[in-house]
Design a protein that fits this description.
globular, Rossmann fold, alpha/beta, 2 domains
Amino acid sequence: MCSYDRRGLGRTARTLDIASALTGQLPQCSILVLSNLSIIGRFRSPQHVDFIRLPGIGPALAPQSADVERTLRVRRAIAEGTVESFRPDLVVIERDPAHLPEEMRHVLSFAREKLPRTRIVWALPDVVGEPRAVSPEWSREGVFDTLDRLCDEVWVYGVRAVFDQAREYRFPKAIADKVRYTGYLRAPVVPPHRIPSDLLRAHPDRPLVLVTAGGGASGYPLISNYLDFLEHVNGAASFQSVVITGPMMPSRAHAQFSERARRLPHVILHRFSRHVLQYQRHAQLTISRGGYNTLCADLTYRKPSILVPDAAPPHEHLLRARVFDRLRWCGVVRPGELSPVSLGECVTAALSGRSEIPRPDMAARVSLDGHLTIGERVRELIPARRPAHRPPSPSKEIHQRTGTH
């Protein structure tokens, strides 16, 4: 499984979650994850899953710079070497198809040549971005050609009736025929008795609001406006807050937020936490930028949510917020409307019961069986025909946790 994140960590977290589900459904499988996420070692790796950390490319570097070219050569050598030595039955790619498309084209062409029996799948979240931008870009960057020539299937981690990617992004028929809608991915079950220790020491009689900025690279406006709101009410808020700025939040900004949070009552602030799902399980309201993984957990636990998407290309969060808002699965503070006052009014109204923000139990009938569907697709694509492979022996590039393709 190949997972490439740009400025966030959602793809890698999602890939590890899927890998964990697959090892439960297919106990003889061996899974190896290739990721460029620098903090992948901070995640709890699923049992029987290993990973290789690829060099990352900073967002400040120009795509054609010499540093990027060198890094791409190293990444390609590692990826191709891994494919040749690991010899997977299935390769699953989870990345933005239009970001450095030539890199993945080289790797997949190599896999096709060396391992013609290996199946290749490109996996996409429920939405990728605004159709008027995505379809022309994919045509210009040769994405449709790559999906047509080099991929056996395209998995969409969503529901066709919610957002029909093949139609909205104008997939050519040959690619549309390869699309499989898996359903949304149910979040792991967190038992009610599992409560983070800092919540146990906090105020169990106060409603809990969870604010998460995802990876954090673009989360400054959300966190800043939320703390502005709490500072404005000057300790009079009737609820407690857990604020997670994200591991990719710039250090200076996180330090500033930490100092502000220390001066506020009933606020717990983390940069990164392995207990996000536990906080989410016990929250009465979640506030996020509209990331896929967070919203899947909201649907799983049926939590009221407020989405605060930004307007930055490729507009994935903004489009998802519009789709969820139209279906009355969430409330939305739209770009250009975010302020301490507007955000505070939404939070106060939602917790008081005066809000029209719908609960995600309105979405109770939407499929959350994505993991089961993925397991079925894996069985269909690679019927058992030989013993499971052993992963490569650990090296400096391989951070062993247990072993899959």
